[in-house]
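User: Hey, quick favor. My workstation is busy. Could you predict this chain's structure for me?
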Amino acid sequence: MALTLPGSLVPKRIGDRLAALCRLPAGTGRERGPGLAPAPCLPRPVLLEPVAETLGLTVAALEDVFAEAARSGHNPFRRLAEVHKADPALAACALAKALGLPYLETIPVSDADAERLRALPFAYLKRNLAVPFTDNNGRLVLALADPFSPELADDVRRMLGAPDLEPALALPETILAAINHAFGQAEADGETRLGDVSLDDFMGPPPENMSTEDLLDETSNAPVIRLVNQLLTQAVRDLCSDIHIEPYQNSLKIRFRLDGVLYDIKTLDKRWHPPVVSHVKIRSKLDIAERRLPQDGSFDIRLGNRNVDIRVSVFPTKFGERLVLRLLEKNQPHLEP
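Assistant: No problem, here it is.
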């Protein structure tokens, strides 16, 4: 059953409406300084009862999951799937019903929505799993992957300059799909679109007939160009700070750094190493013949309306040159305190 407040007590703004559904962990408050993350909020236990019944869990087990998610910054529905093997969609749908919020299986993003969305900080939206859009009735809706985020909702409302937003609940992957769709439209309209292919396409060895022109022309469809462009595209979309391209005796390992942690992305055939290094060196205006000394260079990419500076460092190692590409977005908007 949805929580119902007396009419005179129903808050008007989205942040207050969501705060009415929450309780704060002991020792916390909603006050925060500029640049600090919102204080974690937890659902009122009565709201978890229908969710627990739907999933066959106890309210205490659900409270533990939401508390751990609030502490760690993870999404509670993802944690439910990991810890209790629960169906995230079933859990989200049950919680939305208990909260009296719409549950969204898909998020329609119109051209106008995409334009509005691109005016907001991309990294902020993706990190916080929130996306605003206009519903069929012309109302501005904020889809959230965690409905117990009153300060986040107020922040988005202020950034949009909107008098209010209607809250809705959606799974993280649904929200990410809407964000990527909106920014994907920007890529299509941009001056240069980076390759949109899978790294799985490069699991075999590179073609043997690649020419020097394949390495020089960054707009060509040559395999090495598509591979490097796919790495850049994926790293930018995933909000990574670095790409590490590391040669080993019989393989080439690709790693991305996200939030200070290096993650293994893919291991490729070692024969990709020479053309990848040569192409990156050429784009960075480095000496492709020098293999014994470290080198530093840079180049720019444009992904739709986003300009990214790529700082390149080359280091000699036992098994060949190692590349580190640092991604610095030039025009990333920031949330004002």
